[in-house]
Amino acid sequence: MSNITLEAKNITKYFHDPTTVKVLSDINFSVNKGDFVAITGKSGCGKSTLLYILSTMDTDYEGELWIDGESMVSRKEFELAKVRNEKIGFVFQFHYLLDEFSVLENVMMPGLKLGKHSAEEVENRAMEKLKMLGIEDLALKPSNQISGGEKQRVAIARALINDPQIIMGDEPTGNLDQKNSQIVFEVFKQLAEEFKQTLLIVTHDQSFANRTHRIINMEDGKIVV
Amino acid sequence: MNIKLIIKIAKSLLLARFKQTLIAAVGVTFSISMFIALLSFMAGLNDLLDGLLLNRTPHVRLYNEIQPNIHQPIYSQFDTNITHNFIHSIKSAVSRQEIYNSPAIIRTLKKDQRVMGIAPKIITPVFFNDGAIDITGVVNGIDIQSEGKLFHFNEYVTAGEPADIERLSNSIILGKGLADQLLANLGDVVQVATINGDRFPLRVVGFFQSGMQDLDKTQSYASIATVQKLKEKPNNYITDIQIKLNDLAKAPEIAKDYARLFDIDAVDIQTANASFETGSFVRTLISYAVGVVLLIVAGFGIYNILNMMIYEKMNTIAILKATGFAGIDVQKIFLVIAMSIGFFGGLAGLILGFGLSAIIDQIPFETPSLPSVKTYPVSYNPSYYVIGAVFSLITTFLAGWFPSRKASQVDPVVIIRGK
Questions:
Q1: Contact B316 A100 (CB under 8 A)
Q2: Same domain, yes or no, for B111 and B244?
């Protein structure tokens, strides 16, 4: 079994509206198990677009995408959903918790969807993850009553619940102040170094990127360096 | 496997927008309860109107029609297979109106399993003399026991004792309209003249009211024996045999049977009252149409509210999809929402509809033409409740289907990037 978690081969994408524009051209790279990778670049260079392709949510592209040794090309919608559920954890810029549920329920949700463990087990695992991130006392709070930094940590706990192959982040610190950014970065770092978690983070924060293990720099839809 | 999770998410989304949900459910409740109340009321009225006719109409009536003789003499000379006979100016024959061998027919009918009961009858036209005026009318000679049992005769007698026409000789029950014209009170004697010109004094022992004024202006009832005396006929003379069957639907077939068996004219209720069934059918159709329209309107209410909910919950949908819920899961969530609105709204509607029917049932409704009816008629047929329940689920399913499909097709990338 190879050591490669995620591999992009010749990924090219066009935007067709209003005119056809090539946003990504011939992207080739791979992420190994345990890598802590940052994708950086200026606004509009296509780094977020690339991330959504890598996350399987955007299927309108040319080229090949391999996750955990399986091709994601021409898979059905529900199969891709299953891949996202099982193998990918997400952290977004705007935290995106479900306001109708408590913090604990938010963390449990992908675990319940996966259905691999019983509800009690999922709950225990969720508490474990919250404890690991130091926010176990928030567990029973409604998710719209906690601070932005806390929300982002809850989102990370949720991303971890199914022990994914890779965690993807889209500007996870973009909406946070210095202190909270620092906390979130420390969490990522701890995950990468202590738990050998594979991380792929899109950011335009150069200081954040500099402290990761590997930087992929993008410019005008191409990888430079 | 995921049903529990889907229901849990649906429930949370519902409760998060409790007011909107409630309004949608109230819409369903209102339409279902109106549907139930309307149908029960309409069906009650229908039964009442049907009863007006059905109660008093025999399912099969045996009699002798006045008609030309079908065996014209020329047919015995020239076979119609070989020749074609032209006969001009055929007249109806002076045939006997009496049913021939009626005791034997009645015995046979009583043994027939399909027959619920029979009532013999003599119908004879007469004149009621009131001073200088002759009022045409009809005297029906009836057997009061069987007439009461099969045709609810006693219910229509508003004054006097129906059984008196058997008990007291030369007595008569007059239609209310006829009695008013004759200025006759109970105990008075009215003069009746037959077509042959014989005059009989008959004592008025009761009034009856059928609900149809024209009928009440001409009809009167006496015992069979009295009418036989009136017509100077022997005591086996009857002109009609009225039959009530166990199964109304078989009337046409049985009528044909008897016509052949007894060599007599037989008419079934369906043939005699063709327009009646059409009216009944159209009334039912209208009430169903109104009910279904109500439900469709409620369906649009649900459709709107779900659409709004989906716009509000775009983020939720996007995040569910990003974390591994497939389109079909999202669709199920919103279908569960729609169906639970339909289920609970419908259930409340059934209960409220029953309550409304019960209230209508208590409203006084007194009309001189329907002496036995005191309140508005309501039918509590359970099938309306079943139809209401099924319809509420179907409409909410359809109303939920399209918005939920839209939700399932939400592209999470657009939502997540767009913020």
A1: yes
A2: yes
- Tell whether A15 lies on the interface with B, counting CB pairs under 8 A: no
Domain boundaries, chain A: 4-224
pLDDT at B419: 52
Q: What are the Cα distances from residue B296, in Å, to A2, B37, B322, B407?
A: 59, 17, 35, 22
Write down how long chain B is: 419
B78-94 pLDDT tens trace: 877 888 888 888 888 76
Contacts of A57 in chain B (CB under 8 A): 321-322, 411-413
Strand-pairing partners, residue A37, are A200, A214
Q: Which of A85, A99, A100 sits opposite B323 (nearest CB)?
A: A85
Confidence (pTM): 0.71
Q: Does A99 touch chain B (CB under 8 A)?
A: yes
Distance CA B178, CA A9 (A): 103
- For domain A4-224, say whether CATH 3.10.450.50 is its number: no
Decide if A66 contacts A7 (C-beta within 8 A). yes
- In this prediction, residues B301-325 reach a mean pLDDT of 82
**A101 chain-B contacts, CB cut-off 8 A:** 12
Judged by a CB distance cut-off of 8 A, whether residue A91 touches chain B is no
The ipTM (two decimal places) reads 0.85
| Per-residue model confidence as pLDDT tens digits over A139-192 | 788 888 888 788 888 888 888 888 888 888 888 877 778 888 888 888 888 888
> Do B327 and A82 count as a contact with CB atoms less than 8 A apart?
no
Element counts in chain B: helices (H) and strands (E): 17, 10
Chain B residues whose beta carbon lies within 8 Å of the beta carbon of residue A90: 322-323
Q: Does the CB of A158 have a partner CB in chain B at under 8 Å?
A: yes
